[in-house]
Amino acid sequence: MKPELRWEADVILNDGGIATLRPVQPTDRDALIEFYSRVSDKSKYLRFFTTHPELTAQDLTEWVEVDQRDQVTLVLIEREDIVATARYALVSGHEQRTADVSFLVQDDHHGRGIANILLEHLAQIGRENDVKRFFAEMLTQNRSMVQTFIRAGYSVKPELEDGYITVDFPIDPTDISREVMERRELRAEATSIRRLLNPAQDTDLVIATYNPDTFDEVLDQAAQQGARGIISLADGHNPALTAQDLRDFVAQAREHGLRALGPASLGIINTRGGLNTTPAPMPRTGNVGLFTQSAGISTLALSHAIERGVGISTFISAGAFADVTGNDVIQFWADDPDTNICLLSLDTVGNPRKFFRVLRRLALEKQVVVFIPSRALKSARYLDDPGISTLNNADPSALDAVIRSSGAMVVTRRDTMFDLAQLLARQPVPAGRRVAVISNSAGLSEQMAQSAQRFGLNPRAITVTGDPVSGLLEVTTAALADDSIDAVLSGLVEISTAGQVAAAHRGLSELATTTVHKPLIGTFVGFGDLPEDDADTEHLGQLPVFGNYADALEALSLIVSNEEARAAARPQPEDEVGSGRRSAAREFVASLLSSSPAGRELSDVETAHVLRLYGINLIPWQPVSTLAEAIVAAEEYGWDVVLKNVHPALRGRPELSAVVRHIGDSAELATAWNTLERMSADLGLDAFSPVVQPTVPPGTTLTIRAIEDPVLGPISSVGIAGPISELLKDKSYGVPPLRRRDAHRMLTSLAASELLRGHRGTPPALLEPAEYVIMQVNALKDDVPALVEIELTPVIVGAMDTAVVGARMRIADIDTERDPLARRLR
Asked: Best exposed site among 310, 466, 539, 714 by fewest CB in 10 Å?
């Protein structure tokens, strides 16, 4: 891809405005002259160190005639005008490739974070062009430029030389520079969405139905009026739009400096700001944010939310996947004090890796519920990296499992999403799984207890005797005061006496106002009507009411499980993670790719070398082609060896018995050879591929795998070796940074984990060595993206140690940086 295409990016400025950053073009000369005429004399002086009223022909030549490697010039365009430029040019006299870098920003655009964005993109381009360091020389009064370098997070130490301030620093990304970029990205994207939801004047937000023939004219008028965004509403149906139609829609909006919702958006709502551009009535106010996309699904979700009485802070319908995405809204929610519960109903996502990154951060701060994320993420496997097409995709269930482990709740029914929202908005989060289920019906109490057990809760069933209403309230009050109970579900059955449901509802509602650490939930069965819920707002201290007790218990279970996941996901000082010789591994893989740019499988020797760099030692083996060679190999190992057929068709197939163990002499080896050779022929294999290895102690055989998924990046899996685990999907998953407790969870959460605990009298496995191998494989996969597939099998987990008996790896030429190091939309 040409640099002018690869480096072009739409970016969000600090105030939420939209601009386009791209390499300079030969046709930009007149636009650069006009831009320079709008720059103040002071800014010109700080840029050129002297009075410089006009650009000279030489200036324009240096800016425009660049080779896109040793010299690069970027321009930032807002509403068709160049408002800033940045440049680097290689300088001589340095040991490493070092470039002089400079910026010029139009004065009325200062304070919008433009120089920071230009530096991020120049540094990323420099890294692509093998530039190692940036150098800059500034006048002492140019303090803002000095701060731009310091605050970017690089290792910058300004020095005073000959009356000038100089900086000379490496442009390799650091943890601090990444954190700075992500923090600025969050603020800018949050501000962009906040501007849409809080228009300061009537012309800030334009609302129109989508007509491709007149859309550009509408955008022109919106830009002339100083609008910040446009909502393209659905007009009775979702239009059938091609991918090119959507790209054109986005391009047109961004050329005019506008954020756009649509085509076919249902609209947006900000209850506290009194803004409602949807056809729906204004929902009650609350702390629940709701994001949807297509107008049809948006109508379904919003109508359910209003019907259920969900208190909304903001509602955003993005319409057909175009400009504003779930990533933008997640960034806004993270910065919005009025939103504590975040509901995402996704048809697709923008940048899927960014989605996962920002979602993980949000889930540790606020309650997040996502409706079937694997469906949306699966549709987003489109990343621009050409190497992506060579990657394996994780199973959709893995995507959901990893998102759950990050602290977000995954649901498969939208009603469950609103059940969770109601419970979280109205009552405190339960501290554990102990739930009291109370009813005036013994049958109902028993059924509620059985349902609670089915959802992984620990129920205590209590049946009220005597007066149903007063008895229910008395027992509920006692349960709320009982420290051995974490949550209370109270249900009343109105069998014959009218008015009991209403009375019980009033009493439980009063009790709900007193709950602080323990949720109270009501469910009512009968023929009487509940009092109408006419509160203007939804808030803590209200009674969540469920028509079906099973829905209430499922919601409780999901919340408790999610709190456990959030606690486990939070980093702790004592966390132990894998590590290895990262630079050596990257250099070795890069050397292999230099001679095999299309990628390939690593040889056994290469695989063993890479694993040793991360402290994993393969059991030695020798491939042999004749019985005589096998005998020599066995003698070198001192006998007690294994002979096995490593044909690819037999990998991970222990039921085919392609291994003979504990071979002690040449006669036993000859028998084993004949047996495996006949078996190979019986299976119709095209070759007999024997190897000789020392015998290792017995144990449970695992397969440990790590891949580069197009959506999540590095993801590891563990399962019992063999096709049964594959077919039944009995695997557990983890993503970096994988800690020892995560590796332990991966082992013990397998349905077949009983095999590791000592099944049918076998000794239990020692898990610590296996945990170490899992952590190291995960760290290796995280450190070396080009290792797109790692598989260790069999991994034998014994009572005393873990032995890695076989392994394979595959490499592909993909970008070493999984997430962009410079901000861009999507």
From this structure: 466
